[in-house]
Amino acid sequence: MSFLIAQSIINGVILGTLYLMMAIGFTLAFGVMRIVNFAHGEFYMIGAFLALIGVNWLGLPFPLALALTAALAILLGALVERIVFRPFRADELSGMIASLGLAMILQHAALIIFGPDPQSFPALVSGVYRLGDLIVPQSRALTLGVGVVILLAFYVFLMHTRMGRALRALVQDQEVAAIYGVRLEIMYPLGLGLGVALAAVAGGLMAPLFGVSPFIGATPLLKAFIVVILGGLGSIPGAALAAILLGLIESLTSSFVSASAADIVTFALVVVVLLIRPAGLLGRGEA
Fold first, then answer.
1. pLDDT classification of 234: cutoffs 50, 70, 90
2. Which of 45, 174, 191, 242 could link 217 by a cystine bridge, Cβ 3.0 to 4.6 Å?
3. How many domains does the chain have?
4. Is 183 left (phi over 0), alpha (psi -120 to 50) or beta?
5. Is residue 286 part of a domain?
């Protein structure tokens, strides 16, 4: 029993890392653009395919393929901001509808290019780590380690660089940020590009574990949305707490009950948190 609990906790932390990367990207895009980006899951899917192309077709080492995926995703996000979202900057509802249209376009484009069948990712590493009776596949340990490093690097960027502080100011109050000299024409595409890159890198990291298909973006998008609601919109510490909590609950419930029960517990938790704290676990209520 203790072995199963420990194994479930490890799996839960890995899931939580994925959910956190998705949620931070989702929150950043919303904070910068003021648009609920329903194409966020498709950027996860694109990242998985880009990593697959880099490793399978181009023969690149996985770290290089992941770095290339991130760079292309930033460019894609900046392009999407310019072409799709910029005309709807003052119209949140139309922007949200545009994001739904964009999601359908990206998903069906992937369907035409790659086909509907799931594609397997080559094993990056083989073997396991043994901690007593606990067995941790090296592939999952690699995914967790790289994910944590990326999240820490992004945190340092946001908190300790000039552009990161400008993005945080833009998320908090766009008018005041503009008054203090933040260049909106640069920060808008950068913010969305970084959000897209986080989703794409999450897809690239999870591709070796779960495979790749045009339909893999829906679940990560839903989980990111749940994490944002639970943690509090705009709260990165809240998102971190909610992501790990959600990952642990899902993993433990799936191991000891069933996957369906995990979904029930997840949505019940959302309802309870919203009833008790409408602003989320660490969100700030309106004054």
1. low
2. 45
3. 1
4. beta
5. no
Domain that includes residue 104, residue range = 2-154+182-276
- In this predicted structure, the answer to whether residue 201 has a pLDDT above a threshold of 90 is yes
pLDDT of residue 285: 55
Euclidean distance between the first and the last CA atom of the chain, given in angstroms as a whole number = 47
Rounded CA gap, 234 and 197, in Å?
Answer: 18
Q: Could you tell me if residue 143 is inside a domain?
A: yes
In a domain, 85, yes or no: yes
Question: Is residue 285 in a domain?
Answer: no
